[in-house]
Amino acid sequence: MSRTISVTGKGSISVKPDMIRLCFNMSGVRPEYNEALRLSSDESGALKKCLQKLGFKDDALKTTSFSIDSKYENYRDEKNEYVREFVGYEYRHSAYIAFEADNVLLGKILSAIAAIEIAPEFHIEYTVRDPESARKKLLEAAVKDARAKAECITTAANVALDVIEAIDYAFEDESIVSRPLSRAMLCAKANDEASFDIEPDDIKLTDSVRIVWSIRAL
């Protein structure tokens, strides 16, 4: 019967944000499907024109989701019974732009967006240009931690590590983002491009991996 030791290593790193992702949520309701589609096109078109004036390319605005669905509202009628009434077609359009972490440019963008007749809702995310590199460093740190723990245990037990028998790792596609601004702050600052003096904190990431080694006597 082979003897083994199972150790869980934990990795922890901090990465400095170098990109800003400005995420938009646009929505509206119209009685006819084509009207909802046209309103969505008008709103996203106005946003694209606004961004183009600031130097962004035509394809800078990336859509993450888009839908047009029937919208209903419930109310009580004169008999105090719930009635479901069709009110129109609701479009929902989520999109984003990404650019170098530049608070001056961010202030200009938000000031310009605030001037749009139908200004979309938005939130700001600070992220990194190369998330895969950060995840790789994190996993390497977890494996090194597992190895260090295993060596400490086997040394104390007067045995030695042998070959790796198994590695158990569950990949989780965790977003590498920081959101230092609350929605209330965004509303207050949207018209003041000179007020975005923000230095986001480093993004802290953690991950773990379980490694099983066979062990042998010294």
Describe this structure in words.
By secondary structure, the protein is an alpha+beta fold. 30% of the residues lie in helices and 42% in strands. The protein is built from 4 helices and 8 strands. It has helices spanning 33-53, 103-114, 131-156, 183-189; strands at 4-15, 19-30, 62-76, 82-100, 121-127, 159-168, 177-178, 203-217. A 5-stranded antiparallel beta sheet has the order 3-4-2-5-7, covered by helices on one side. The longest helix has 26 residues, at 131-156. It is elongated, with a radius of gyration of 26 Å.
Mean pLDDT: 88
User: Could you describe the largest sheet, including whether it forms a barrel?
Assistant: 5 strands, antiparallel
Radius of gyration: 26 Å
Question: Kindly, what is the distance between the CA atoms of the first and last residues, rounded to a whole number of angstroms?
Answer: 17 Å
Query: What is the number of E strands?
Result: 8
Proportion of residues in helical segments: 25-40%
Low-confidence stretches: 184-189
Q: Structural class of the helices, strands and pairings?
A: alpha+beta
Which strands sit side by side, in order, in the main sheet?
A: 3-4-2-5-7
* Overall geometry: elongated
Order of helices and strands: EEHEEHEHEEHE
Strand content range: 35-45%
Number of helices: 4
Describe the structure using short key phrases:
three-stranded antiparallel beta sheet; 4 helices; five-stranded antiparallel beta sheet; 218 residues; alpha+beta
